[in-house]
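Weekly modeling sync, notes
Attendees: S.R. (lead), two postdocs, one rotation student

Agenda item 3: backlog of single-chain predictions. S.R. asked that every request posted to the team notebook include the full sequence so nobody has to chase files. The rotation student volunteered to paste the first one in as an example of the format we agreed on. Action items at the bottom.

Example entry:
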Amino acid sequence: MPRISVIIPTCDRPHMLEEALDSVQAQTYTDKEVLVVSNGWQELPKHLPHNFESVKFMCIPPRSGPGVARNWGAMHANGEYLAFLDDDDLWPAEFLEKMLDCAETHNADLTAAPQHLFGKRQDIIRPSIPDAANNLSEWREIGYSGSNVLIRRDSFWCAGGYPTTLITGEDRGLLMNFLRKNMKIRICEDTFARLRKHNEGQLTDTATLMLGKLGFMTEYRDDIPAKDLKEERFAFLVHLSREWRWPVWIVGVFTAPAACWRRCRKRLLLLKNRLFSPRRR
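Predicted structure, as returned to the notebook:
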């Protein structure tokens, strides 16, 4: 029985999937199985099963969503741990080895690694670390995704798996469910996941993202501190203003002035850092 089950949901991005599989096959940790769950309209290229004979390929109904695909893979997994990788992301060669070492050293239910974003000024996103009361210091950019976590399989199902009622934000939803159950979460600083930003087959448009944000705020409104929830709602109004091209964010200025000021201050600090930070060569 393998120690780690690697689960890769994929949706009509065969070229990027092949590169993701290459990064999994190159792992220094070998006691693993790999499961690919396709929820796309297109059939997977026939050369993939031939090139990756040890990988188990499965198909579910098209556009079921990444949460459903990940849960389906987890149901068929045999490993003690579950490692998730999106089809458009990559792992460095020692990712699984270092993540497992961190998880076992700290007896963690969920272990997360930083994420490197290529092609952006902010190239590292660090997961928000829960405090002793399992509260997060940052609730908007929490740094947990479908490519940088290693989870004990028993803990995964105890938390209910990825929430499938959310349109988007199932990654944050999974973390929230872990926090609800006071499970142990640790950050592995010894490795990272590579997140690729690209224009090849993006699966979520702006309108869907906004609906996802609204659904997340509705589902977890009792778990998010009031101050952070107001910031989430103000951010939603800003996104809505961009989509509608109408300044509905002004409503937030009167209903949540403190949240508006905090967001403006963050933007000003970010602009200051961009203008006065040394340029990279």
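Discussion: group reviewed the output briefly. Residues 257-276 form the longest helix (20 residues).
Action items: rotation student to repeat for the remaining queue; S.R. to check formatting next week.
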